[in-house]
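Lab notebook page, bench 4
Experiment: in silico fold of construct C2
Operator: M.H.
Input chain length: 456 residues
Purpose: comparison with the prior construct
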Amino acid sequence: MRLRSTLACLALLASASAQAAGRPRFGGELRVAHDGPPEVAEPALADTPLEATLLGLLSPPVCRATRDGGFEPALARELSRPTPQSLRIALPDPASATALARAWMRLASSDGASPYRALLHPLRGEARQVTPRGATLELTLAYPWPDLERALCHPALAPPASANALGPFTAAGRGALEAQTAWPQGRPYLDRLLLTATDQRGLSRLWSSRQVQVELGVAAETDTTAGAPLYATFLAFSPRRLPPDFRQAVESAIDREDLTRLFVQAPAQPMPHLLPPAMLDAPARPRPAAPSARPARTVTLRYDASVEDQRAVAERIQVKLHERGYTVALEALPRAALRARWAQGDFELMLHALLLPPIPGPALAVVLDAGGRKDLLGVELPAIGALASSAARDARARERALALAASVPLVPLYAQGLGMRFAPDVGGVMMDAQGLPSLDGLHVLPAEGTAMGGRP
């Protein structure tokens, strides 16, 4: 009897040890290097994949779109549908609800106008007036839109980072982030992240000398992990200020394959349609012939001064359009100033880069608004949202993207993803549907032969 009891105890201990061995260990820190800015801007402007990843550490959106077609809460405690035409978002506290409502209303304002406001178009009043009830937002839809929850997971719809923002980490001095114990989804495994902003040469040096364990924004095409290429760059043009055959001039002059391969930071791919190849994988249309010669014309191409490869792309467009009779002056602007020019329609040419959501319908909404065709949202989106099947909605959005291309003053150029490196001792590497890494799930793997445990 004693032997049987002893064996039973040993079996239980072995089972407990096995379960403990399968759980990540809480604690430790990771050193992270990136080629982005030391600090990120407001969410609607922090829309490169790298900046969106960094912002999400301090102030994430209400949810995270998962790669299986669903979503999981992030800032929100719960998202529910009391009725098919309403959405209830339960947030951690009234301050979070107020900050989120203000952020959404700002997207539609003259001061903070952004193409990401199109993600809120299905809401009654387009979220221009959102009044929290305590820690809850009660939203009413203007028309059926089954993809609303996943659209609200977009990083641009997060509240701004602030001292009161609630994210998986909190700022603890320059370049240091500490785990947020009050994070609604449970504190991260790591105690802290140590961030270093550098350039591509610095990334290579830090990685080769093993001074960091994670790198974000890596341009190398080997030994990297790549997020979904949803950061789409367009050449926006003003039909009021340019000849009717301007699109033909651009399409005939620009070889997207060469442009992407020679001038764009990897990982990247040519984008021949209004939606990236990750969502719309259709053959490119044949390049048109050059239009008839016109008198020489001078135009200004504005681009984002903070995105390094936009300068190279702008210079290439300058050269190629010169062959079509255009003298192109280049002007680099801060992103906020560039978006302000877009909102006012005050440009001739502009490189417009957007982090598109991973669902064709919401992505098409953002692209149409970015192209100055906000008038089409009330026509196109209800027809897409009326379809019950997600596959049917996606197919309809793809069809409409192809059909509407000629009426939207955007020339698609290329789409990029986030290049990353993770050291062998980093565990928990997961990507969301947006192509961004979930850094709050990372943990340090123990040295071989040591035991792993749960929460200390």
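Observations: The first strand starts at residue 29 and ends at 34. The radius of gyration is 24 Å.
Next step: discuss at group meeting.
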